[in-house]
Amino acid sequence: MKTEFSLTQLADPDIAEADKILRACVHCGFCTATCPTYVLLGDELDSPRGRIYLIKEMLEKDRPPTPEVVKHIDRCLSCLACMTTCPSGVNYMHLVDQARSKIEKDYTRPLTERALRAVLAWVLPRPGWFRASMILARLGRPLAALLPTPKVAAASPTLLRRIKAMLALAPSGLPKPGPAGGSVFPPQGERRGRVALLQGCAQQVLAPRINQAAINLLTRHGIEVVLVKDEQCCGALTHHLGRDDDALTRARGNIAAWLNEADRNGLDAILVTTSGCGTVIKDYGFMLREDRDFAGAAAKVSALAKDITEYVAGIDLQPQRQHGDIVIAYHSACSLQHGQKITQLPKELLSKNGFVVKDVPESHLCCGSAGTYNILQPDIASRLRDRKIANIAKVKPDMIAAGNIGCMVQIAGGTSVPVVHTIELLDWATGGSRPGLN
Ligand code: SF4
Ligand code: SF4
C-alpha cells in the first residue's frame, strides 16, 4: 500500500513503524474472511482491510480521529485472526495499538463513555478494587433484569446496555484469595528449575485455582515457583484501552521486579497462565524499544516470558491417571493461537496425558471476550459467544478447556458444560485434584 507520510512525520519512530506496516499490506482482502466483525456485520469498514485504510488516513492527515473511525476501531476485538491469515505478514497488532493510543489522546468521547472507560482502567488492574466491584456487581445483578434489552443487537451500545453486560458477567460467588506476592513454593525432590508465575489481576480474584494447579504441577515435577513481590498488572487491559502511559508504567515496574528476582535468585522463565497477558509481556521488548533505560531489560523479559504450556512441554510430565473417557473441547484463545502462535501444543499435551481432545469448528473465530470488549461491545460479544457455544456443542464435550480466563468466563456464561484451564487438566492427570473440586 502506498503511503504519503512527510519526512517530518517519518522522523517519529511510531509513524515510521506504521509506515512499514502499511506498506506491507497489498489490499488482497484475504484477512476479511476470518475477521469476526466482518463475518457478523459484513461492512468493509469492520474488516481488517477497512480498518487499515481508516488508520492510514488518520495517521497521514494527523488530525483528531472522526467518530466514524473511532466506531470501527472500537469494534475491533484485537483478536489478531487477521494476522494469522495475512499472507504478507502485516503486523495489524502494532498498527491498531497505535490507533487506539491516538484515539485516546486526540479524541473526546462522550462523558458517560469516558467515565466508564476510566472506571474499567482503574478497577480491573487492581485485584482489591476488582474484588470489591465483583461483590457490588453481584448485589446489583437483580437490577440487570430490570434494564431494557435491545430488540436488535446494537453495534454501538448505550451505557445502560454496557452496565447490564457488566452485571451479567459478575460471578455468583468469589473464591478465597490465593497466595500473596513474595510466596515461594519449593519443589518436591531435587530442584530441576526455578520460575516466576504471573499472578494476574482478574484471574487471581475469579479463579485462583488456575495458578494453584500450575504451582502444584510444577513443584510436583521439581520446579520451584515464586510469586514475585511488587509485581503488578501486566498492563494489557489499559494497553488495549489505548492508555499507553499507564500500560508502560506497569511494564517498567514488572520488568524491574522480575529482573531483580532473576539477578538475586535466578529465573529460568516467567510463566503466564492467562494468554492475553502473555501476548503483551512477550511484546514488552517492542513496546519499550525507544526507552533507553528499559529497552534491553524489556527484551530480556519478553524472551523469558512463556505460556505455561510452552514450559510444561519441556518437562517430562508423569501422568498418573488416564482420562480416555473424558472428551475435551479445546477452545483456542485468540491471544494464544493468533497472538503467540501456540496452536497444537496445548492439545498435544492434553492428548499425551490421557484426554480425548476435540477441535472446535470455526476455532479461528473469537468467543467475544477480548479484554473489556464484552462490556464495551456487549451485543457483538454475545453473538460471538453464542456462535462459539453452538460450535462447541457440536463436539459433545464433557469439559471445555482454554488457556485464558477471559474466554473461560465468557464461554461459561452461556453453557452448563464445565469450563476449565488446560493446566488444571494437566495437574489432574499428573496427580492433582479434579478441576472444580479444589
Ligand atoms: S483483530 Fe480481529 S476483529 Fe480486529 S480486524 Fe483483525 S480479525 Fe478483525
Ligand atoms: S490479508 Fe494482509 S495484505 Fe491482504 S488486505 Fe489483509 S492485511 Fe492487507
Query: Strand order across the biggest sheet?
Result: 1-3-2-4-5
**How many strand elements?**
9
Q: What is Rg?
A: 21 Å
Which molecules are bound in this entry?
iron/sulfur cluster
Q: What summary fits the major beta sheet?
A: 5 strands, mixed
Mean pLDDT: 93
β-sheet strand percentage: 5-15%
Shape: globular
Q: Fraction of residues in helices?
A: 40-55%
N/C terminus separation: 54 Å
Low-confidence stretches: none
Number of helices, counting only DSSP H or I runs of 4 residues or more: 24
Main structural class = alpha/beta
What does this structure look like?
By secondary structure, the protein is of the alpha/beta class. It is built from 24 helices and nine strands. The protein has helices at residues 7-10, 13-24, 36-41, 48-61, 67-74, 81-85, 92-106, 111-123, 127-146, 159-169, 202-206, 208-220, 236-240, 244-265, 275-281, 284-287, 295-304, 308-312, 334-339, 345-352, 373-376, 378-393, 405-412, 422-429; strands spanning 184-185, 193-197, 223-226, 269-272, 305-307, 323-330, 355-359, 399-402, 419-421. The chain has a five-stranded mixed beta sheet with strand order 1-3-2-4-5. The protein has a four-stranded parallel beta sheet with strand order 7-6-8-9, sandwiched between helices. The protein is globular, with a radius of gyration of 21 Å. The model has no long low-confidence stretch (mean pLDDT 93). It binds iron/sulfur cluster (2 copies). One iron/sulfur cluster binds at residues 35-37, 48, 51, 76-82, 92.
